[in-house]
Amino acid sequence: MTRKYFGTDGIRGTANQYPMTADVALKCAMAAAHVLRGHQSGKSHNKVVIGKDTRQSCYMLEQAMAAGFLAMGMEVILLGPLPTPAVANLTRTLRADLGVMISASHNPYQDNGIKLFGQDGFKLSDETELEIEAAMDDDLSAHVSSSDDLGKAIRLDGAPGRYIEYIKSTLPRGMRLDGLKIVVDCANGAAYKVAPKILWELGAEVISMSINPNGRNINDECGATHTDALQARVVEEGADIGIALDGDADRLILVDQNGKRIDGDQLMAVIARNWVENGWLKGGGVVATVMSNLGLERFLKTLGVTLERTAVGDRYVVERMRETGMTLGGEQSGHIVLSEFSTTGDGLLAAVQILGIMKQSGQDIASLCHVFETVPQVLENVRLSNVDAQTAMNDNNVLSAIQAANDTLNGSGRVLVRPSGTEPLIRVMAEGDDETQVRSVIGSIVQEIQKLA
């Protein structure tokens, strides 16, 4: 069935334009409540928690969704600005039936999105999302609650404190961060209050950046997708480490004391090595996406650990982790999933775990986190205007160029050609030990796609 509203990570779009309108948000809430009621027959009142990031449009969408849930007789708990993983966690710990996060993650403020979590804290299944989509286009007026059974809404002022204590509790008992000087960039996003407080309460000296959201500056030249200012600040302050989060704080990029970026692949390698040494890694492997560097795969082999690859998106990483029983997964972009602690990617959780390993090892962050040499990886995007992505992907000349590239690399690298999930682009990636060769094979594929573009 073709999806109308939901993409790979909920509903997303430009705020106040279809489908990211108050009307669609209202319908989504009512439909989700209706589907939930069908799944839990006999339960008279359901509970939903709603969190958001700091975008101006969150006020509109939060109120619209609250109205939809209340009309269906649900109890609504408003959490205010909180990281996505905090909403997933509180959905479980508050024994809610549904969790909602209003955020477009690392996108600019003009965009927004709606993510839904089940009572177990995991994102809803494709099947449930399709049920909700179908209900959104139905007339639900016959299913709304009577005036006597309308829901009520409360604001949970203690929500940030619950999440702060949870993250602190994931460190070994008695471990603190005293003596560490940390610069944290909160992207003017959902973690602008909780991130500095967690680090400070654990004993670190904290220098905070991008903690003054105004509704329009989220991810604006700051955070995990724009680390230049953080890199410079770490060196300027003589800090031990820099932490960059994105708008909803489910993504993490670190900066070492020399101002060098550390991506998700290196972070997964650090945690994998530590967990193997301590006997904590479960499932015999790590789950990452097709974009993770070949260097990570080779390093994990030296630990006796396999690398399972999925399509791009932390949703697919989590699904594979649940299928295989693996407890560590993530993306090169900085989504790190530690399923012993969380049901989704959590930038603050991952940062605290890395800081814990750093304290235990006595190593500086540069020594600890530059675990393997990355294999040269080149990515080029080809924008399409005259043809759709699938047609271009199936073109015989494009397919021949891809096959020729694989033949040229001959096992010393790999080629990945995939359509963008959000833009009219085809992304062409290749990696291998010889960068000149990699750039050559990329060029031949791009050339054939451009003939069609």
Structure description:
With 453 residues, the chain is an alpha/beta fold. The chain has 4 domains: 11-157, Alpha-D-Glucose-1,6-Bisphosphate, subunit A, domain 3 (Alpha-D-Glucose-1,6-Bisphosphate, Chain A, domain 3); 162-258, Alpha-D-Glucose-1,6-Bisphosphate, subunit A, domain 3 (Alpha-D-Glucose-1,6-Bisphosphate, Chain A, domain 3, 3-Layer(aba) Sandwich); 262-369, Alpha-D-Glucose-1,6-Bisphosphate, Chain A, domain 3 (3-Layer(aba) Sandwich), CATH 3.40.120; 377-452, TATA-Binding Protein, CATH 3.30.310. Helices cover 39% and strands 20% of the residues. The chain has 15 helices and 18 strands. The strands form 4 sheets. The chain has a 6-stranded mixed beta sheet with strand order 1-5-4-2-3-6, with helices on both faces. A 5-stranded mixed beta sheet has the order 8-7-9-10-11, sandwiched between helices. β7, α6 and β8 form a beta-alpha-beta unit. The longest helix is centred in the N-terminal third of the chain and has 18 residues, at 22-39. It is globular and about 70 Å long.
